[in-house]
Amino acid sequence: MRTTLQTINTKILGNLNRLTEDMGKLNETISSQRQMSTPSDSPTNLASALGLRTDLAEIKQYRTNLQYGASFIDASQNSLQQIKDGLIRGKVLALNAINSAMSTENRTAMAMEVANLFEQAVTLANTQVNGKFIFGGYRTAGYDELEPTPFVIGQADGYRITGNAPATLDAGLTGAGVNGGAIAAGDLTINGIAIGAVGASGGASRGLFMDKAAAAVTAINLETPATTVSASLTTLYAGGNATNNGGGDTAVSFDLNGVAVNFTVPAGTSAANVALLTVGAVNAVAGQTGVRAAIGDGSNGGAVNAVVLTNSRAGDASAIDVANMAPAGAPALIGFGNFTQAADAGHNTGRITLTSSAAFTVASPNNPADDTVLDALGLGGGGKGFADDPGDGIVRQGYPLDSGALVINGIPVGAAAADGVSDVFAESSASAKAAAINAVSDRTGVSAVVIPITLLAGGPVQSGTLGSGDLVINGVDIFDVATTAVPKDADSAVLKAINAKAPLSGVAATRDSEGRILLTPYDTSSGLGRNLHLQTSANGESMLQLNSGASGPQDKVYFASVQLRSTRRFTLETTPTTAASLEPGLAAIGLEGGLLRTGEASDNGGDGKLTVQRIMTQDGNVRYTGDRDNDIAVKVGKRNTLDISKNGQAAVMDTGVFTALKDLENYLLGQRFTSVTGFARVGDVNSTLDSGTTGLANEEELVNGTFTVKVSDHAVDPPRELTFKIEVDVAVDSPATIADRINGIPGISAAWNTDGYLEIVSDDGERYTFSLENDSSKFLSAAGITPEVIQQQALDRSLVAIETAMQSLTSQVSDFGARANRIDIQNQIYDNLELATSENLSEMQDTDMLEALMKFRSKETAYQAALSTAARIMQLSLVNFL
Fold it and tell me: What does the pLDDT read at residue 651?
């Protein structure tokens, strides 16, 4: 085949172009120092290089994370170390303060410095790095006006709300007067058990349907074993009409239930005024007799101008006894003579009283939309018992917490079960409700504690004899052995009797300087929230005056209250009743009724909803608002993280630093003590203080007087304060009786220990604190308990607490040091890894300059040679052509 000039020219140009292209690629390689500029250069190598570049970028990010972590660790270590330095200074101050030469002014100045150390510790705990709190856990940011920082001074630990104690309850539910209508069998149920028929009344007896009431009691009591509810009547006796006193002055006297009644009817007194004088005389001694009197009016069981006598306690069917009436003409004058009358179908108030040891429900299932059947028993109209709507056909007694009636954060609370310690309404006690709430606290985040009952008598103990039945506490007869009481219980006979039964009743007693009895829970664990059930006879109530303002025999149930707590805001819900918008679930824990009852600004009464978003203030406390469960961590690998700080609960709060500093401040100021042990040893705790044989120091200086005990309960806001005066009578009191009286004060315990020293201790140091003041009797100083001793012992305890907190902080600082070491090790690992990855990437993508230059020179020489050769060929071809 003949080669043409055009073919030769095309080949020459093609070869020169390839050489030019090769030199261009080599030039780009040399200038960029990269072997590959496009995927086509080396697809396999380029993919590997891109992977290595990604690895290098991740390594750099991880190293940045480590640097960030190192700054957190350094800041955490520095903060904890400075907090520890503050504790060291506090320890020095405590050691100086223990010196007895220090004055009150010196210690007050020290307290001011400790207060500054306390605030400085909180500030250090709120340290930030790059705008993030180092001890916030996962909550390094996102704080608000209510929770401005992780550590907040003066707030309780979380959100709290305290329910009001349910109203004091009569043990029995007493209705208004029954009406004359019949009740068909099954129209009435008690606790779901049908009650038999109750026939219509034969007619009212002076306005009262006594026979209908008696028939209802009979029908209800036939089902008592099944319903657990019994019914009773209240005794009523109506005399005949009083008459005019047409003769001279008449001195009337008689014994009413063994109590003398005496009065004079002046000559010429009208029948109406004779009845009025009789009623006044009977009511003057009603506290001793348990019987009250009224003037008949034709509608209250008595005729006009007749005297009507009734037992003052509803449901008391016992006999009213009148004896020794004098003079002989008195019965005709006042309308009644000697008699003994118990409740029966013709002698009752026309009202029924229902009683049970547990909460109960009375309903009319066949008439659920109205109170017709309940009206027939005097139980309709609403407002009776618990959360009772008018016209709903239901009435309840007790304060139950039914299953699902209370919903916390969307989780229903189960029904409260009997607490095992209360003798009545045991499922309605604060203990029972707290247990039901705590059973779901792991799901709701809300827990419950109880605020126990304290009951102070309305007046001092009176003189007289107390016997069986005069006082029954939680089902325990206190005076089953007759006890003689003196005014104000000066010999502590009443206290000894109550406290001797405290292990059985669960209630201890003390008395103040006025002689008033104070009852408090004896058992500080399971019985703290039990009900207080007081039953007093007329004689017992008159002498002890326990039920303030009451007269005659009483049967009362007092309830403790429930406090709810959570680290976060929470919501309570219940379904309001239809008519009155009552809130049963909230009422069961004393939180119904809206803002005025709960103090929560957003709470509207009757809507069935309560959002707790107000943080309770608590003086001297530090609240941690950050994340309590998680620690701050940085990513140091695709699936690996490294903890760089601890949440504030673990790193700071659990060390006890804030408590140690605040307690030291309080002790330096001489306040908020939690325990003291006297240094004076007693020889005989039962000898009277004037006997000279007690062995107490300076016992000859003891005099009649008082000292004051102040107890603060910090679980509520503001703290509940109880100031109690203990009276000392050296001729009657012994070291044991004084200790018993202190022991009965809520929140503290007192006893002479086995070594003979008096110990006074808070039942819960975080909750109850006390102070002892104004010792005019010199008893405390004789026992070796002076303000200086209390303060010295408190400062000794403070030193121990500070030392413990310092050790905990040292451990925390060491732990952060270990974290810093892990950061350093991880940095070294990434140093080596980055170097190795960079070398691999360099081998894969970087240009070997010497090799590239040699290749370029070779291509350049080839290009020049090819160009020279092409010129000759083209010259020869041209000559041949010409």
Answer: 93
Where helices occur in 446-549 by DSSP H, the ranges are 493-500, 502-505, 538-544
User: Residue 202 above 90 pLDDT?
Assistant: no
- Helix (H) / strand (E) element for 871: namely helix 849-881
Q: Which residues in 416-549 belong to E strands, given as ranges?
A: 446-451, 455-460, 464-466, 471-473, 476-477, 483-485, 507-511, 516-521, 532-536
3 state SS of 626: coil
- Mean pLDDT score across all residues of the chain: 87
Please give the pLDDT value at position 505. Answer: 93
CA pair distance 415, 358, nearest whole angstrom? 14
Q: What are phi and psi of 717, to 5 degrees?
A: -125, 120
Residues 6+ away with beta carbon under 8 Å from 104: 670
For 629-685, what is the HEC assignment? CCCCEEECCCCCEEECCCCHHHHCHHHCHHHHHHHHHHHHCCCCECEEECCCCCCCC
CB 572 within 8 A of CB 563: no
CA distance 647 to 72: 12
- pLDDT greater at residue 117 or residue 578: 117
Averaged over 362-366, what is the pLDDT? 90
Residue 417, phi then psi, degrees to nearest 5: -100, 160
Reported as a pLDDT band with limits 50, 70 and 90, residue 821 is confident
On whether the pTM is more than 0.85, the answer is no
Among 698, 750, 745, smallest CA distance to 725 is for 745
Whole-number Cα distances in Å, 718 to 157, 477, 567, 632, 713? 15, 37, 20, 36, 9
SS3 content of the chain, % helix, strand, coil (to 5): 35, 25, 40
DSSP string, 8-74: HHHHHHHHHHHHHHHHHHHHHHHHH-BS-SSGGG-HHHHHHHHHHHHHHHHHHHHHHHHHHHHHHHH
CB burial string 488-524: b at 16+ within 10 A, e below? bbbbbbbbbbbbebbeebbbbbbbbbebbbbbbbbbe
CA distance 20 to 5: 22
Angstrom distances, CA of residue 606 to CA of 387, 395, 573, 576, 689: 12, 19, 11, 6, 59
Q: How far apart are CA 599 and CA 461, in angstroms?
A: 38
User: Are 645 and 135 in contact, with CB atoms under 8 Å apart?
Assistant: yes
Confidence of residue 842 (pLDDT cuts 50, 70, 90): very low
Question: Which residue do the tokens 């049970």 mark?
Answer: 356
Grouping H, G, I as helix, E, B as strand and the rest as coil, residue 372 is: helix
Query: DSSP strand E in 305-408: where?
Result: 306-311, 320-326, 339-341, 353-355, 360-363, 394-397, 407-408
pLDDT of residue 841: 47
Tens-place pLDDT, residues 153-187: 998 888 999 999 999 988 899 988 999 889 999 99
How many Cα neighbours within 13 Å face the side chain of 120?
18
Decide: helix, strand or coil at residue 143.
coil
Q: Considering all CA atoms of the chain, what is the largest pairwise distance in Å, rounded to the nearest integer? A: 184
Lowest model confidence (mean pLDDT) among 224-228, 240-244, 528-532, 614-618: 614-618
Of the candidates 255, 305, 316, the one whose C-alpha atom is nearest the C-alpha of residue 285 is: 255
**CA angle centred on 443, ends 441 and 447, rounded to 5°:** 15
Rounded-to-integer distance, Cα 632 and Cα 645, Å: 5
pLDDT tens column, 409-453: 999 999 999 999 999 999 999 999 999 999 999 999 999 999 998
- Total number of residues shown for the chain: 882
Distance between CA atoms of residues 558 and 465, nearest Å: 26
Judged by DSSP in three states, 688 sits in: coil
Element (H, E) at 727: strand 720-728
Torsion sign over Cα 462, 468, 470, 475: positive
Q: Which amino acid is at 250?
A: T
What pLDDT does residue 778 have?
A: 94
